[in-house]
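Fibronectin type-III domain-containing protein
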Amino acid sequence: DHSFEEWGEPLVSAPAVTTESAISIEETTANPRGDVTNTGGENPTRYIDYGTSSGSYPWNKNCGVGGTGVYNSNLTGLSPGTKYYFRARAVNSAGTGTGSELSFTTKPNPPTNLSCSVISQTQINLTWSKGSGAEKTLIRRKVGSYPTSVTDGDQVYFDTGTSYNDTTCSCGTNYFYRAWSYKTGAPNSGYSDATSDDNATTLPCGWTGKISGVTNPAKIMGVDVANIAKVKGVA
C-alpha cells in the first residue's frame, strides 16, 4: 500500500470589511473608519473611499496593510460645512471587500467681522461676513455681557443673509451680540465652534441732540450715555 500526502499553500479569499462611523469631525479634518472582520487568510490593504456625492468616491485614503479590527483614516484637507459620503474597502491578492456607505458633515467656519452701528434709541444695525460652509448665521444678544451659548440670551437673527436691522432695542442700553455659523448635520448641533462678536449702546432715553465730527457717529461703545455730551467731538 502507498499513501500520499499533498501539501499546498493555504487558500486565500477576499477580505470582509464593514464601514464604521466617522469621529473627530472638525472644519477640515475627520476620521472615517473601517473594520476588517475577516482577512481571508492574507492581511489586506485597507482604504477609505470618499466623495461629496452619494455612491461616487473620487478620493481614497490608503490606511496601510493590517489584520482584523478597526482602522483609522484621519482625513485632512476637507472643506468646511460639507457633507461627505464614504465607505471602507479592503484588498488582498484574492479580491476586494467593501463596506456600506455612511456620511458625515464637517463643521462650518465661524462668521467674521460682526459689526454694530447704532441708528437710534431703539435700533442697532448689524453686518457680518458669512462663514465658509455656513448654511445660516445665528445671532443672539444679551445686555451687559456676551451670550455664552447658542441658547443663551435672546435670538436676534437666524437666516442666510449678511445684515440685519435690530429694531427691538431699548434706549440707553448696552447690547452684546454674538454670531455663530450653522450647517445642517454638522457636529455641535450644527453650530460653529468659534464666534464673531461686537457690542454697542443705543442712544440715551430722551436724546434729541446731534452728533458730529465722528466717522461713525451713531456707534457709541463703552460710553456712559448719561454723560454723552462730554465725549470729544459730540455736539
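thats it. The domain at 112-223 is CATH 2.60.40.10 (Immunoglobulin-like). Confidence is low (pLDDT under 50) at residues 217-235. bye
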